[in-house]
Amino acid sequence: xxxxxxxxxxxxxxxxxxxxxxxxxxxxxxxxxxxxxxxxxxxxxxxxxxxxxxxxxxxxxxxxxxxxxxxxxxxxxxxxxxxxxxxxxxxxxxxxxxxxxxxxxxxxxxxxxxxxxxxxxxxxxxxxxxxxxxxxxxxxxxxxxxxxxxxxxxxxxxxx
Length: 160
Known about the structure:
With 160 residues, the chain is of the alpha+beta class. The protein has helices at 2-14, 22-38, 64-80, 84-93, 98-102, 136-159, and strands at residues 44-49, 52-58, 115-120, 124-132. This is UPF0303 protein C9I89_03200.
């Protein structure tokens, strides 16, 4: 269990932005949508920055339940300052539910994969990038895969 927690913590440390903006939120959201389509997946996507939703898209085949799952997973990121997948695995490692661990309402907090901290280097967590529609590990991995590509392109453009 520690291996997966270490892997997720390393992802969160590595996948941080140098800066963020409304336009970057749109580009990131569109990149998530595009990769989901390539994978034949149907997801809802939400990017929230400082409490403001900068991007939301519900692909055909999603329902209002996906938006509700996003809200609950995003609450985990905001409260615990880590991905919802990390928190879910941390609860599993301690053999406790999030309710038992932190006395929070599971109707408000969902420690399942699919919400990732939106972090800015030397600033901290300023929001969340969330998806819902796939099994939880795949929701998490979709975000990670897009961030790795998106941030790699960022670094190349910053070097120019």
